[in-house]
Design brief:
Blueprint lengths: L1 H16 L8 E2 L3 H4 L7 E2 L3 E4 L3 H13 L4 E4 L6 H6 L7 E4 L6 H9 L4 E4 L7 H14 L2 E5 L7 E13 L4 E13 L7 E6 L8 E2 L23
Parallel strand pairs: 3-7, 3-8, 4-5, 4-6, 6-7
Antiparallel strand pairs: 1-2, 8-9, 9-10, 10-11
Length: 231
Amino acid sequence: MANAEAVQSLRAQMARMQGRRLDAPVLPVPPALATLLPGGGLRAGASYSLGRSGSLLFALLARPSQNGSWCAAVGMPNLGAEAAQAAGVDLSRLVLVPDPGDRWLAVTAAIADVLPVVAVRPPARAKDADISRLAARMREREAVLLVQGPWPQTEAMIDVGDPSWSGLGEGWGLLEERELTVTVTSRRFPVPRTGRVLLPDARGDVSDASRFTEPLRPAEVPAPIPMARAV
C-alpha cells in the first residue's frame, strides 16, 4: 500500500512540474476508439499525433463537436466539409483556417486560447522551443491538440492501416464499410494497443469490428468425423 501511495505522490509531483492535471477532463470519442486511448478519450491539455487519415481526424472531432465543443482545423485546405459532416462532425461548431501561412504555429496557439479542440497539419518542422511554448499554452487553456503528422511530447500517437472495404459485388454494389486496424502508442502503455474497427460503418460512424464476428452457436458447431476402425 505504501508503495502505491509513493507512486501516486510521484505522479502528482511530476504533473505539477509539467503544469498538467491528473484530473483533467476527458473529451468523448467513439467507444471503439475509447478502449484504445489512454484515459478513454481526449485528455484536455494534451497533444495527439495522428496519421494522415481524414476519416480518423473526423472520428475524433465528431463527438466533441456534437457535445457542444468548438473545434478548428488549421492548415488543411483540402479538408472536405461534406465528408466531415457525413462522419458526424457538427459543422456549425467547426472553424476552418485553410492557409495560415508561415505563422501557422502562432495561429494555432491563438485559436487554442478560445477553442477547446484544435487540429493542425504542420507545413514544416517547428522549433523545439516553440513546441514547448505551444504545449504550455494547451495545458493552461485545457485545449486538445490533434496534429496530423509526427509531433513530440504527445499523449499518444494514433494511426490506421490494413484497410479493406466491403459492399461491392462482381461489378455491382456500393462501398458501405471499411475495416481497418487502429494502433495507439503511448508512454502510458507498455506495448502499443491495436484494434480492428469499422471506419466508417454502414451508418457512417465508428464501430468495433470484432463485435460483428459472432462465434458459432453449439448447434452450428460441426460434429467430429468418426475415424475408421482398423479391420
